[in-house]
Amino acid sequence: MTVVDPAMVKRAVSAAALGNAMEWFDFGVYSYIAVTLGHVFFPSGNPTAQLLSTFGAFAAAFLVRPIGGMVFGPLGDRIGRQKILAITMIMMAAGTFAIGLIPSYASIGVGAPILLLVARLVQGFSTGGEYGGASTFIAEYAPDKKRGFLGSWLEFGTLAGYVGGAGLVTLMTALLSTDALNSWGWRIPFLIAGPMGIIGLYLRMRLEETPAFAQLEREARTKEKERREAEKRIGIREMIFGQWRSMLLCVGLVLVFNVTDYMLLSYMPSYLTSELKYDETHGLLVVLAVMVLMMGVQPLAGRLTDRFGRRPVIGAGCVGFLVLSVPALLLIRQGSLAAIALGMAALGLLLVTFTSAMPSTLPALFPTKVRYGSLSIGFNISVSLFGGTTPLVVTALIGATGNKMMPAYYMMAAAVIGGIAVLLMSESAGKPLPGSPPAVETEAEAQELREAARRPATAGSAA
């Protein structure tokens, strides 16, 4: 039985969410300025070809994420998760800062898109070590009855990063002319990421230096010594094939989570601009407002997963995307500000069912001895194959078919796969993680559980 210190857990959650916010600020900036990057790095007379090239570089970062997970996962077991999370944050900020320094295609020719691709690969490699470590860390130290609520703050950090990236790009778009934005303005959001990375690292290190957080880290090392000895004998084969059912469930859940996530938060700004010819600034403002709405609902939805369970919440999201994707996109295509806002808000609220539940659901799929490695591998494989490629695939489908409803059909297909995973998964809300003892928030709660465990034994003896 583990009695956690609530203040200690809050500090751990804050550090993990901060890192997530920093990393997804970097990704968000790239996503929201994709149309401009197409003009700068991939000159072509065809806007669709430009957008395809830009999202191709975006998707390339996700192809190296599994490699990052395989490298950083074992390192996190040896030298500490927080140290690895700090390293990944530095690499992400450095990669983003470097993008802001790359000359345009007009200046150096084909070298420009090559350098852009290298910077994106650095970003993708570093992100491979982030989510699995952060979600596992929070899940293992959260009390069983609050794991959903505390885990939801990890994706709150993601949304905060997206809001920061979208807000900055929107400001640049509103203040600068198209020529100025294409000439030098696009660099500003990327260059800001450098100082922000330093500030974020400083704040995280300050969190680690507090006595309570330092004690947590010492206890974590002590508890993980025996675990690491066992994990040394566990290879990649055991992490994947020894947990094949949980791995498939993880891939299915992450698929619906990330396809809908990247569709709404990364692809939709470009869809509104390039496919529907909607005003770029207005489109970004709508997406920004939707993300702020999601941030407000996120912790409440996390509490719902603790009260009613992860399966009902995720299942409701899958049904919602299956039924409402087409009506929502038809509203968006109607073109008025009110219709676009309503359609985007509907998709955003459905997405919250995933962002609030997944950080507590995914770690519970695996036992302690393989949790970090298996989750990192399954998560990054699914994100690489299905999540990060969503903008590229949907843009290509629209270009090939001319059907601008493809985003809705793609989300519906993902919802079917996610729904199957929900039907096959076990409920984990309010239960200890597999291979871990019960975790409670107070000594009184621990005493209640001990007494409850003794009652059946006492009754059996009396009989």
From TrEMBL:
Matching entries from CDD domains are given as:
MFS_ProP
Residues in Major facilitator superfamily (MFS) profile domain copies? 12-430
Keyword list, A-Z = Cell inner membrane, Cell membrane, Coiled coil, Membrane, Symport, Transmembrane, Transmembrane helix, Transport
What GO MF terms are annotated? symporter activity
Q: Tell where it localizes.
A: Cell inner membrane
Keyword Zinc listed = no
Question: What Gene Ontology cellular-component terms does the record carry?
Answer: plasma membrane
Cell inner membrane recorded as keyword = yes
Q: What is its main location?
A: membrane
**What is the membrane topology here?**
Multi-pass membrane protein
- A Pfam family this chain is assigned to: Sugar_tr
* Positions of transmembrane segments: 51-72, 153-178, 184-203, 247-269, 281-301, 313-332, 338-365, 377-402, 408-426
Q: Where is this region: Disordered?
A: 431-463
Question: Matching Gene3D superfamilies, A to Z?
Answer: MFS general substrate transporter like domains
Name the family the entry cites.
Belongs to the major facilitator superfamily. Metabolite:H+ Symporter (MHS) family (TC 2.A.1.6) family.
The record describes the protein's role as: May be a proton symporter involved in the uptake of osmolytes such as proline and glycine betaine.
Instruction: Show the NCBIfam families listed in the entry.
Output: PRK10642.1
Protein's UniProt name: Putative proline/betaine transporter
